[in-house]
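Annex B. Sample input.
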Amino acid sequence: MNNKFTFLLVLVNMVWLGGCFYHSSEPSRASIPTIPSLPTQSSEVTAPITASAVLSIPAAETAIPVPEETPARPEPEPPEYRLEIKGKSNRLTPKALKSMTEWRENIITFARKHRDSVYINGPDRNRVALTFDDGPDNVNTPAIIDSLKKYGVKGSFFFVGEMAKIYPGVVRHAFDNGNLVLNHSYKHDNLTEKTNHQIQADLNQTDKIIEDIIGKKPALMRSPYGDTDEKVVAAATETGHKIVLWSIDTLDWSQRESDNIVHNVIDNIRNGDIILMHSTSRTNETAKAVPIMIEELQKRNYDIVDLETLLNVHAYQ
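Annex B, continued. Sample output.
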């Protein structure tokens, strides 16, 4: 009995003490700082934000907008470098002068249309090319080759096929001294008067003669008299040739004095000029003019190069 009474007494004391402890530890309302009221939340339970929820948000709502790039304007192409054809002779008849002037105007327009097949001049750099047609012969062509060698420059020779057959040693001499040996038709006929098949046969025959002598087939040709049309371009392309004409005509076949030949070059020289001369038995004055011309051009700081270098094209197939 005493034990039950003692237990009840202890239990009552514990309850009384617990209530006192609770009331003594609770802070008074006066001691609690005022907290600004928060917006009323919805009574609905908010779902927790998870990684999958974040990833499901549309990109348009979260991505930072990227400004559109303005497309770059293409650089304008440099104007085409096309030279007028220079050179004069006081021995041309009025009819011949008119014909030559018309040809010069027309061929420049034609070359512009066929810019990858027909060349009048090289690019706008201080380089020029000396070119020689109608040879070889056994006097003036060797003299010209020796002058080129003496001054350390290279020339470009457009040889006629039937003449190359007569003087193969001169052809070889030109090639062995670093000059280009190129195609000027077999008999120097006007190619515009031939059919496409005839033009191809003519060029192939000349190529074969040259290849038999130097072991290389030309990839550059010059049409006799400069006469060139769509048919000639087509045939030349089909036989693997580009057509190279000229921008300075020395007219050494008309007014043959060496002074006039030199002046036609020096008075008209421009960057990229292709200079036309001839190396035949009748062009003694040209052979005399070549060393004078080279010296004058070198004084003006022009590099004298072959057509492959000037035009950046292959000389041989």
